[in-house]
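FORM 12-B: Structure-to-Sequence Request
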C-alpha cells in the first residue's frame, strides 16, 4: 500500500477564488477517503486585495497538525506567490500561469524565483479560463484541473465536488466552473510531461466512514444547540463571528433567542442576565472583546450566575492582527479580573474537541453556577477537518441546575454553605425562592456583608466548588509508549497539542524516548497528573504560540523545575516539524 502525506497550497489575491478552490480540494479528497486538514490565511480587511493562501494537508493516515512546508504551490497570482515560495519544500512542485495576460516585469514572475530542485509546470491558466468561460475568474478551477491531471485523481469525482460546491448557483455558474476544470485537466494531460513522483493512483484506503467536514466554529455552534443553549448575545468580531452567524439562523428554530448587542460589555451583561433567569446562555468573542468583558466576569463569579464565554484568540495586543492565530490570552483567561476570582477555563486541543468543550462548558457553568471560558484560537475556529460525527450529549449534561428542596425554601439561603460549595439555586419565580443578588460581598441570603469573617467563608465557598470541578474534567491526554521513563516530555495546550503529539510520534519512530501531555481542563488544572508525568521525564519542553511563554510560566510554578520553551508568533499554527527539531536539539 502506498501512503500519501502531502501539503498543497493555493496562493492568490483576494477575489481570485483561492479559498473556494482550497475548500473544493479538501472536500473532494475527504470524499475519496483521505484525512484532510486545511487552514486559510487572508487579509483582515473586508474588501481587501491582499494575499490569500489556502493550505491543505492530505494524508492516508491520521492527521494531528496542518503541516509546515508545502509539497505543491499553485500560483494564481505571481506577486503574492513569490512571497509564499519560502513555504515550498526545496524539491516541491510549482504550478504557475505560463501565459499571463501581460508580460511580467523583471523579477515579477514566480517561476524566476523557483529554486534549483523545484519542479515547475507552466499551465496557461488565464488563457484556458477565458476559453472555458470568457473571463479569468475560472483560473482557480483550471488550476485544480491541472492538479487533478498531474496527480491522477478521479476526474468525475472532482467535477461532482465542483457541482456540489456551486449547486445553489445558477446553471451558467456551475457550467463555467466545471468547464474551466475540464480545460485545465485536458490541456495538462495532452501537453505536460510529468517529471515528479506525486500520484494518487493505486492508493488503497480503509473503508470509508461517514464524516463531517467542519470547522471549530461550526462545531461550537452545533454543540451549543445540542446542549440546550437558550440565549446568545454577542457583538461581531473576527474570528468568532461565524458562531453568531450560525446561531442567528438556528437558535430560534430550537426555541432560543439571539441578541446582537451594541458592544461586548452589553453582550456579557445580557448573558449574565439570562443566566440569572435560569437560561443556558453564552457569548463568543476574541481578545479585544474579552478584555472588555472582564468588567462583568467577576460579577458572574461573585453572584454565582452561570455564564459561558467562547474566546477565539488572535494575535495581539489590542486589536492586533485579526486574521492571524495566537495563544496569547492564556493569562487574561485565567487571571484576568479583580480579586480572587476563580473561573473554569477549557481549551480544546483539536477540531473535534471543540464540540466536547462547548457541551462541557454549558454543563459546568450551570452546575457550578459560575463563569466558564473556552479558549479557541483563529486556527481552531477556522481550520477545516474531516471528523467522525460527534455523539450527542448524554441527558445528565442537558440539565444540571441543583434546585432547592421544600426544606431549603422554608428559609431560603441562596448562598447556603454546603460541603461542596454548590448552593441550591432557585430560578426567579420559584415560590419561596426570593433572594438578593449583588456584585458586593454578601452573606448566605445575598445581603451585602463586608465583615472579615463573611468575606473569608464566602471566598472559601467559591474556591471549594471550583476545586470540585476536576472530578468531572476530561482526563489529560498522555501518549502511551510502554515505557515508564522518558528523555523528553512535551507538555502542550490548546491547538498546539496536535502538533506536539505528532512531533512526539515522529521522534519515537526515530528512536527518541519521548512522550506528550495535554489537558483540555486549564483551570482548575490537573496539577497532580502534570507532576506525575513530569517526574518521569528527564527534560521538559513546552511549545506554545505566544512570545512570553505564558503557559510555560504557569506550568513551571506547578512543577518547581526548569523547562525548555518553544515560542512562535508567526500568525500561523504550530508546526510539528519545529517541535520535532527542538526535541532533536534537546
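FORM 12-B RESPONSE
SEQUENCE OUT:
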Amino acid at each position: 500500500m502506498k501512503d500519501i502525506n502531502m501539503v498543497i497550497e493555493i496562493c492568490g489575491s483576494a477575489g481570485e477564488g483561492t479559498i473556494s478552490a482550497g475548500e473544493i480540494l479538501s472536500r473532494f479528497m475527504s470524499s475519496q477517503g483521505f484525512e484532510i486538514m486545511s487552514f486559510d490565511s487572508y487579509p483582515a480587511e473586508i474588501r481587501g486585495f491582499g494575499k490569500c493562501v489556502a493550505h491543505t494537508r492530505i494524508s492516508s493516515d491520521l492527521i494531528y497538525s496542518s503541516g509546515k512546508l508545502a509539497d505543491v504551490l499553485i500560483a494564481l497570482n505571481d506577486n503574492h506567490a513569490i512571497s509564499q515560495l519560502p513555504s515550498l519544500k526545496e524539491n516541491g512542485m510549482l504550478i504557475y500561469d505560463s501565459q499571463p495576460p501581460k508580460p511580467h516585469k523583471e523579477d515579477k514572475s514566480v517561476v524566476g524565483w523557483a529554486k534549483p530542485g523545484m519542479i515547475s509546470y507552466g499551465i496557461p491558466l488565464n488563457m484556458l479560463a477565458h476559453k472555458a468561460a470568457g473571463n479569468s475568474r475560472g483560473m482557480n478551477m483550471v488550476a485544480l484541473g491541472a492538479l487533478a491531471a498531474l496527480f491522477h485523481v478521479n476526474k468525475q469525482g472532482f467535477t461532482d465536488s465542483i457541482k456540489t460546491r456551486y449547486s445553489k448557483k445558477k446553471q451558467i455558474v456551475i457550467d463555467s466552473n466545471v468547464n474551466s476544470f475540464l480545460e485545465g485537466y485536458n490541456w495538462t494531460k495532452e501537453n505536460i510531461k510529468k517529471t515528479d513522483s506525486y500520484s494518487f493512483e493505486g492508493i488503497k484506503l480503509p473503508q470509508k466512514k461517514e464524516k463531517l467536514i467542519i470547522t471549530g466554529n461550526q462545531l461550537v455552534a452545533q454543540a451549543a444547540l445540542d446542549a440546550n443553549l437558550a440565549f446568545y448575545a454577542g457583538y461581531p468580531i473576527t474570528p468568532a463571528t461565524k458562531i453568531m452567524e450560525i446561531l442567528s439562523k438556528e437558535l430560534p428554530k430550537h426555541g432560543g433567542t439571539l441578541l446582537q448587542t451594541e458592544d461586548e460589555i452589553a453582550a456579557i451583561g445580557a448573558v449574565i442576565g439570562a443566566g440569572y433567569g435560569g437560561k443556558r446562555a453564552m457569548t463568543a468573542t476574541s481578545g479585544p472583546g474579552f478584555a472588555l468583558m472582564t468588567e462583568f466576569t467577576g460579577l458572574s463569579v461573585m453572584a454565582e450566575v452561570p455564564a459561558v464565554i467562547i474566546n477565539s484568540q488572535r494575535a495581539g495586543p489590542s486589536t492586533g492582527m485579526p486574521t492571524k492565530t495566537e495563544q496569547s490570552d492564556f493569562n487574561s483567561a485565567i487571571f484576568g479580573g479583580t480579586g480572587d476570582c476563580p473561573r473554569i477555563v477549557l481549551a480544546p486541543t483539536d477540531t473535534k474537541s471543540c464540540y466536547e468543550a462547548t457541551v462541557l462548558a454549558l454543563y459546568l457553568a450551570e452546575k457550578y453556577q459560575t463563569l466558564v471560558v473556552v479558549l479557541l484560537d483563529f486556527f481552531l475556529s477556522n481550520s477545516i477537518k474531516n471528523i467522525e460525527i460527534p455523539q450527542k450529549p448524554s441527558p445528565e449534561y442537558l440539565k444540571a441546575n441543583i434546585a432547592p428542596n421544600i426544606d431549603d425554601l422554608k428559609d431560603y439561603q441562596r448562598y447556603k454553605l454546603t460541603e461542596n460549595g454548590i448552593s441550591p439555586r432557585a430560578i426567579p419565580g420559584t415560590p419561596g425562592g426570593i433572594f438578593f443578588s449583588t456584585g458586593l460581598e454578601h452573606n448566605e441570603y445575598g445581603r451585602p456583608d463586608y465583615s472579615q469573617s463573611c468575606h473569608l467563608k464566602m471566598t472559601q465557598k467559591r474556591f471549594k466548588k471550583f476545586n470540585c470541578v476536576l472530578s468531572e474534567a476530561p482526563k489529560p491526554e498522555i501518549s502511551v509508549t510502554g515505557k515508564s521513563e522518558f528523555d523528553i516530555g512535551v507538555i502542550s495546550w490548546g491547538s498546539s497539542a496536535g502538533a506536539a503529539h505528532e512531533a512526539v510520534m515522529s521522534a519515537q519512530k526515530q528512536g527518541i524516548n519521548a512522550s506528550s501531555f495535554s489537558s483540555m481542563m486549564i483551570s482548575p488544572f490537573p496539577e497532580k497528573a502534570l507532576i506525575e508525568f513530569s517526574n518521569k521525564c528527564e527534560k521538559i519542553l513546552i511549545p506554545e504560540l505566544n512570545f512570553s511563554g505564558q503557559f510555560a510560566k504557569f506550568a513551571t510554578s506547578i512543577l518547581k523545575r526548569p523547562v525548555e520553551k518553544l515560542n512562535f508568533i508567526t500568525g500561523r499554527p504550530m508546526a510539528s516539524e519545529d517541535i520535532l527539531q527542538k526535541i532533536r536539539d534537546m
